[in-house]
């Protein structure tokens, strides 16, 4: 699956987002190295801090399905924003827990352009499992 197809898959998920408070739907498609695609949407809550972003929904679903650190090939994030929509900082930290620094992260914008970054680009000097 190429990045355009993965992004289309992320876009198609937006309709499933539960975002009644922000009205900001986000869809994610997470490609596994075995070719499986796992999706995620943001799931909000009236207690706003209980909201879960689409990226974390996808990662947590993958872990629930038995995937492990190193099994992740790429992630595509889609919203309705004019500019490229990047994962929030909490999601970047969660991605860093399970994904390698060179994993591609695909962002998109209103013009449906795709910006290909890596996790390392988004989270340099990540706090990981440092030796002591
Ligand atoms: N959100 C995501 O799901 N992913 C992002 O990359 C950025 C923000 C959600 C959280 C909240 O439901 C809404 O978008 C507005 O912040």
UniProtKB/TrEMBL annotation:
InterPro entries named among the record's database cross-references: APOBEC/CMP_deaminase_Zn-bd (IPR016192), CMP_dCMP_dom (IPR002125), Cyt/Deoxycyt_deaminase (IPR050202), Cyt_deam_tetra (IPR006262), Cytidine_deaminase-like (IPR016193)
Metal-binding is among the record's keywords: yes
Necessary cofactors: Zn(2+)
Regions crossing the membrane: none
Binding residues for Zn(2+): 53, 88, 91
Enzyme nomenclature, EC number: 3.5.4.5
Enzyme class: hydrolase
The protein, known as: Cytidine deaminase
Organism of derivation: Ectobacillus ponti
């Amino acid at each position: 699956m190429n990045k355009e197809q993965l992004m289309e898959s992320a876009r198609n998920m937006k309709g499933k987002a539960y975002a009644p408070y922000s009205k900001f739907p986000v869809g994610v498609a997470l490609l596994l190295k075995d070719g499986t695609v796992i999706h995620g949407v943001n799931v909000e809550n009236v207690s706003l801090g209980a909201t879960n972003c689409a990226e974390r929904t996808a990662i947590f679903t993958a872990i629930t399905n038995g995937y492990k650190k190193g099994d992740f090939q790429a992630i595509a994030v889609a919203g309705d924003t004019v500019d490229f929509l990047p994962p929030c900082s909490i999601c970047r930290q969660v991605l860093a827990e399970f994904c390698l620094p060179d994993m591609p992260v695909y962002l998109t914008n209103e013009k449906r352009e795709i910006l290909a970054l890596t996790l390392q680009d988004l989270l340099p000097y990540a706090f990981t499992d440092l030796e002591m």
